[in-house]
Write a structure and sequence with these properties.
Belongs to the UPF0053 family. The chain is an alpha+beta fold. It is built from 9 helices and 12 strands. A hairpin with a 2-residue loop joins strand 10 and strand 11.
Length: about 280
């Protein structure tokens, strides 16, 4: 048989799917079998799995909680709003009137470029309508609504009408396509700590404190948190931003990868050698 007569990807996958799965579990078994036969790659399988699970995932499972929302008060002066927008680096901000349950609308960061030309600034004139959705809404339904309305953010409310959090289209897409990897990712499960070409160490946030202590001869406690990510989050009291740095007990940590909810990878300076005492014997 020549190469032109070999069945293509679609034909092979179709023949596999002709087994007519009776439920979702069987469908996933077939898809995993297709992956094992090299009919699809790992990325395609991840996306299909994410798309299927989106219909079973509720907004409350992926939203940014109320306490972690970055909001702007409608009465804040412009010279206070701009630094907040620059520091948080978001493209959209809920605007409240004194209380997070009283959301007036959404401010687009790009509108600030035009607001600077306004002589009589009134933030209310620049607000876009806020979209409110229940906690129980499924992600596949929300994604369809985002596409139709061209909105990129929705405010999540609980059964009593109070604000529970917010969700963006990026949050939904991440659940489908998975975490977006970059040049700082490394996949080996056993390789949580790796020496960088600069002489520093790339450390996964999920690295256990015990393993970190063993690698760097440190004595961080694991009573309140189990991982290096937990150590950093506890020190800052929030999720850090990419490239943000901090020092903990003499060790410098720099954030290589993080999103609005999670910390993924850190760059750690090697511990400094302890100075030799002048009284120490030669």
């Amino acid at each position: 048989m020549d190469s032109d007569s070999k069945p293509g990807f679609i034909e092979r996958l179709t023949s596999l799917l002709l087994r007519e799965p009776e439920d979702r579990q069987q469908l996933m078994q077939i898809l995993h079998a297709a992956y094992e036969r090299n009919l699809m790659d790992a990325d395609a399988l991840t996306i299909i799995e994410g798309a299927l699970s989106a219909s079973e995932t509720r907004v409350t499972d992926v939203m940014i909680p109320r306490a972690q929302m970055d909001v702007i008060d409608v009465d804040d002066p412009l010279d206070e709003i701009v630094p907040v927008v620059i520091e948080t680096a978001h493209s959209r901000f809920p605007v409240v009137d004194g209380d997070r349950d009283n959301i007036l609308g959404i401010l687009l960061a790009k509108d600030l470029l035009r607001i600077h030309t306004e002589e009589n600034f009134d933030l209310r004139d620049w607000l876009r309508p806020a979209v409110f959705i229940p906690e129980s809404k499924r992600l596949n339904v929300l994604l369809r609504e985002f596409r139709v309305s061209r909105n990129h953010m929705a405010i999540v409310v609980n059964e009593y009408g109070g604000v529970a959090g917010l969700v963006t289209i990026e949050d939904v897409l991440e659940q489908i396509v998975g975490d977006i990897e970059d040049e700082y990712d490394f996949d080996e499960a056993h390789d949580n700590i790796r020496l960088d070409s600069t002489g520093r160490y790339r450390v996964k946030a999920r690295t256990e404190i015990e393993d970190f202590n063993e690698a760097f001869s440190t004595t961080f406690s694991n009573e309140e948190f189990d991982t290096v990510g937990g150590l950093v989050l506890r020190q800052l009291g929030r999720v850090p931003k990419r490239n943000e740095s901090l020092e903990i007990d003499g060790m410098r940590f720099q954030v290589l990868r993080a999103d609005s909810r999670r910390l993924y990878t850190l760059l750690v300076d090697p511990p400094k050698p302890k100075p030799v005492s002048e009284d120490a014997p030669a």
